[in-house]
From TrEMBL:
Taxonomic superkingdom: Bacteria
InterPro entries assigned to the protein according to its UniProt record, in alphabetical order: DAP_epimerase_AS, DAP_epimerase_DapF
Subcellular location field: Cytoplasm
Function summary: Catalyzes the stereoinversion of LL-2,6-diaminopimelate (L,L-DAP) to meso-diaminopimelate (meso-DAP), a precursor of L-lysine and an essential component of the bacterial peptidoglycan.
Protein name: Diaminopimelate epimerase
Keyword entries, A-Z: Amino-acid biosynthesis, Cytoplasm, Isomerase, Lysine biosynthesis
Species assigned in the record: Spirilliplanes yamanashiensis
A Pfam family reported for this protein in Swiss-Prot or TrEMBL: DAP_epimerase
Residue ranges of the TM segments: none
EC number: 5.1.1.7
GO process annotations (BP): lysine biosynthetic process via diaminopimelate
GO CC terms in record: cytosol
Record family assignment: Belongs to the diaminopimelate epimerase family.
Catalysed conversion reaction: (2S,6S)-2,6-diaminopimelate = meso-2,6-diaminopimelate
């Protein structure tokens, strides 16, 4: 039997597996079976909680972070980064006394994209994600609709596409992945579609979005996707810094860009614990 915790950040849901010493034989097949919404637990991805020193990709950061976020997409593929995943991961560490929430500088977490730090404040967990790199123009195509977009590196790859005013966000069929340019995104891409939102108190800009995630399909929320959308919204507004409210089907995330970095914040909760019969998956 395998013990698990289930958590989510604005509806982007994860199976959390505690494997501090790296003894679990976690395979793409097991990840996909756990994430299966009919035959398994169901999730957009798996977060393995493993000591950085015990994971080959985390060992280099073991001096700075005790824990490595071993993130897997629902189809069993890896991703370099997951913004909502980090927030749920830190919620797990704090709930289980595995990290000090009052530590100066926040809770450090090693990821495939490097070290991030998170700060908890009640229901909200904010992560210093570093400044996203807005770097290229490209397109996404769905059937007859081709939408120009902007490539953004948040540790993982994103393509942010502003919809024409005549195409409502709700009208998109994201059951299948939008086609993208493999020359720009050789490792695949997460595609965000955006439309402007009404003014929101406390934010300089407001954007609504939906996302098709590499390896997980359409999800209710994507933290790095919101980060990418926030960075493009600020660029398009001619601003170097500011606060962007990003509304997704699963709720609101806030992106705050200052001279040094970019913060991603929003709720992160643990909702269930249990055991799963590995042999029955
Ligand atoms: N939902 C995540 C992103 C997860 C990884 C992504 N699917 C990829 O393959 O890059 C988030 O909250 O950032």
């Amino acid at each position: 039997m395998l013990a698990f915790t289930k958590g989510h950040g604005t509806g982007n849901d994860f199976v959390v597996l505690a494997d501090p010493d790296g003894q679990l034989d976690l395979t793409p097949g097991l990840v996909a079976a756990l994430c299966d919404r009919r035959r398994g637990i169901g999730a957009d991805g798996v977060l393995r909680v493993i000591r950085a020193a015990k994971h080959p990709e985390g060992a280099g950061l073991a001096g700075e972070a005790e824990w490595f976020m071993d993130y897997w997409n629902a189809d069993g593929s890896f991703a370099e980064m997951c913004g909502n995943g980090v927030r749920v991961f830190v919620r797990y560490l704090l709930t289980h006394g595995l990290a000090d929430g009052s530590a100066a500088g926040g809770v450090p977490v090693a990821t495939r994209a490097g070290l991030v730090r998170a700060v908890a404040d009640g229901d909200t967990i904010a992560v210093d994600m570093g400044t996203p790199r807005v770097y290229d123009a490209s397109t996404a195509t769905m059937g007859p609709l081709t939408v120009p977009g902007t490539a953004v590196d948040c540790g993982n790859p994103h393509l942010v596409c502003a919809l024409p005013a005549a195409v409502p966000l709700e009208s998109l069929d994201l059951h299948t992945a939008p086609a993208h340019d493999a020359a720009v995104f050789p490792a695949g891409v997460n595609v965000e579609f955006t439309t402007p939102g009404e003014p929101v108190d406390g934010a300089d800009l407001h954007v609504r979005m939906r996302v098709h995630e590499r390896g997980s399909g359409e999800t209710l929320s994507c933290g790095t996707g919101a980060l990418a959308v926030g960075a493009v919204a600020l660029r398009d507004a001619g601003r170097a810094t500011g606060v962007v409210a990003v509304d997704l089907p699963g709720g609101r995330l806030t992106v705050t860009v200052d001279e040094r970095t970019a913060w991603l914040s929003g709720p992160a909760v643990l909702v269930a614990t249990g055991t799963v019969d590995r042999a029955a998956l």
